[in-house]
Amino acid sequence: MVGIAITVAGLLLIAGGSYYLVASKLPSLEEADATLYGQLMDADAGLIADGQSARSGVASASTVLPSDDPWVQSITALDSSSLTLHQWVLLFVNQGVTKVVTSAPTLDNPNFNDTPPIVIDVPTPGGQATASPAPPPTFLITTGQAVDLLTAMQKRHRLYQASLTSLNDSVGAAQKATAMTDYTTAVTDLQTGLATAQFLYDSTKGQVKDNSTRVTLAAALKAAKSVLDANGNITAGDANSAADVQAATDAMKAALATLKDPSDKVSAAVDNPRITKATDPLPAACQARGVGTNGCLDPATLCVVQRDQLLACKAVEPFNQLSAAFEAKFGHGLYVDCGYRNYDAQVAMHDRYGSPRAATPGTSNHGLGLAIDLPDWEYPSEYPPGQAAEIQYGTPQENWLIAHGPKYGWVFNVQGEPWHMNFVG
Ligand SMILES: [Zn+2]
């Protein structure tokens, strides 16, 4: 006997006591359930991706943030709890669940916290029942269970997104704080480098054999200044990221490096007979004269004061203090034309200028590392280079040095040499 009844939802066939739902024009229950099952699978795939993002995010954050960072800990806990949901979905899949039904009188999996049975008794031929691994039973979960599971997964997805955003914010802030430290140093270094190069440029006007070296330095200065202008104003509160700050830092370091070569070339081109290099503290003549004599000082007792210029080590710090005080007054530090002069250099000076302008070799205070010569340009002059410019008394700079030098142990005590200061301690 076959009975036929038409329902709102579809065609209900009643055959031998079994019930089947057959699709009609309206969405069938099976189609709706398949959609829910698909959403569950999609949510699970999304949660797996979330977990991978979270683990990767925590791993990279751990190099920047402390291990007890609250976002690292909350994301780690969230990932652990989310794995439980994923394992439930895996369990359903492994047990052959392929759809969700709206009602399940044979449901064998009433809640998430019970593990469904996976072993059943299967009658063997001959009538003996033996416990054995079961063929996969068809588990069904209800719509309500599926929705609960889906809701829980979607909630965790939102938590992942929010927590990862917060973690990234924390990482970005920490990375930027680190980058700002290097950045601040780079700004100061470039400012100092620019000031030094600018001073070299300004103070060598008319002092160099080849002025094209100064033209090249001027171009390098202009370029480096523009890099500083474009990159030197970032503050911690700016919207720039750590990568932005790092890029600005790199640009300024590169700009600083571009100043070195033209500065070296200008220094090398300076045509000033008082500038003598003391890179060899012990020339050959000192073998006979003896280490420690005038012009033959033990290199261990000499220290660099500027560039390749040396002084007796004890005189360097007092000079630096004098120079700093001078800079506070006049805007730039003192430039040392010549500090320690070795014996050979004094011989060359004496050959060029003779006595009394150049001291007899072996008697100069320069040979003791206790004298400096200041350049002509410390004494503003209307005279062109090579003329009387170096004999300038009574300039504001010299008057200041005469008044304040003794506080640092530096005095003018050589008549006729307004450029020469001795360290008397
Ligand atoms: Zn001198």
Outline the fold blueprint.
Layout: E1 2-6, E2 11-15, E3 18-22, H1 29-61, H2 70-94, E4 100-101, E5 119-123, E6 129-133, E7 141-142, H3 143-203, H4 212-231, H5 242-269, H6 286-289, E8 302-306, E9 309-312, H7 313-330, H8 343-353, E10 371-373, H9 396-404, E11 410-411, E12 420-423
Parallel strand pairs: 4-7
Antiparallel strand pairs: 1-2, 2-3, 5-6, 8-9, 10-12, 11-12
This protein binds zinc ion.
What can you tell me about this protein's structure?
It is built from nine helices and twelve strands. It is mainly alpha-helical. It folds into two domains: about 30-115 and about 135-270, no CATH class; about 285-425, 2-Layer Sandwich (Muramoyl-pentapeptide Carboxypeptidase, domain 2), CATH 3.30.1380.10. A hairpin with an 8-residue loop joins strand 11 and strand 12. The longest helix is centred in the middle third of the chain and has 61 residues, at about 145-205. Zinc ion binds near residues 366 and 371.
